[in-house]
Design brief:
- This is Flavin reductase.
- Keywords: Oxidoreductase.
- InterPro entries: Flavin_Rdtase-like_dom, NADH-dep_flavin_reductase, Split_barrel_FMN-bd.
- It contains 3 helices and 12 strands.
- The protein is mostly beta strands.
- It has a domain at 35-144: Electron Transport, Fmn-binding Protein, Chain A (Pnp Oxidase, Chain A, Roll).
- A hairpin with a 2-residue loop joins strand 2 and strand 3.
Length: 159
């Protein structure tokens, strides 16, 4: 199989859109990440996977802490800016949470401390302990087949 076929097939699994962000030498940096998952309840661990060519790859290994912002449907343009699909035409509404930047107004935000890493092909898996969460509610943006969408609810509010 080729890379395009693999990416297209993996795109059949709907995910949310997250922004992983760091404070690197007083500069707020972020990138779109949909390879994000819960790993453990005790301790509270999550994992993200980042391409070795990504701008944050080495910087995250250096800072060892990051924020995760689970974006809401109204933040689609922010996701496009971080995915390099749109020019940055506004200030990103970063706020600090436990010392790491997160995006204000997100469905939920997590502050994380890297506990372990594992090289996996051309990516690094970062396993991190969640040190703080904030959940504001709302509906997340969904990513499916290289496009974004939103939840559709019936009259009972069920998706």
């Amino acid at each position: 199989m080729d890379n395009r076929q693999f990416r297209d097939t993996m795109g059949k699994f709907a995910t949310g859109i997250t922004i992983v962000s760091i404070d690197y030498k007083d500069e707020m940096l972020g990138m779109t990440v949909n390879a994000f998952m819960s790993v453990s309840l005790e301790p509270k661990l999550i994992a993200i996977s980042i391409d070795e060519n990504a701008r944050l790859y080495t910087k995250l290994q250096e800072t060892k802490q990051f924020g995760i912002s689970i974006l809401r449907e109204e933040q689609k343009e922010i996701s496009m800016i971080f995915a390099k699909q749109m020019e940055k035409d506004r200030e990103i509404p970063f706020v600090k949470q436990s010392g790491v930047p997160v995006i204000d107004g997100s469905v939920a935000t997590l502050s994380c401390q890297v506990k372990d890493t594992a090289k996996a092909g051309d990516h690094m898996i970062f396993i991190a302990e969640v040190t703080e969460i904030k959940a504001d509610g709302g509906d997340p943006i969904l990513f499916y087949g290289e496009t974004t969408g939103q939840l559709t609810r019936n009259k009972e509010g069920i998706c």
